[in-house]
Sequence to fold (103 residues):
Amino acid sequence: MVDKISYHGIVNNIPFLLFIAILCTLYIANTSKAVSMMRELAIKNKELKELRWESLDVQSRLMKATSESELTQKAAALKLKPLDKPPFEIKKTINPSPKNKIN
Fold:
């Protein structure tokens, strides 16, 4: 037991001590990186939440602006009025030309 605590015992265990020191360094670096990623994730989630609210706001304003009552008011400002009759399709018929008969 005394041999392991002596200078000779410490020198023999230097590779193991270096391995432990490297593991501790990697553990600290990994923890630091995880904490920074968590902070970045929280920032991105907050930004995503704000963008969702903005998207919903724009969508609701678009729905209101394209409602029939709003369009009627905007058209009235341009002196346009809604149709009284439903729209109809215009069809054009082409009469075939008479064939020239040669006797």
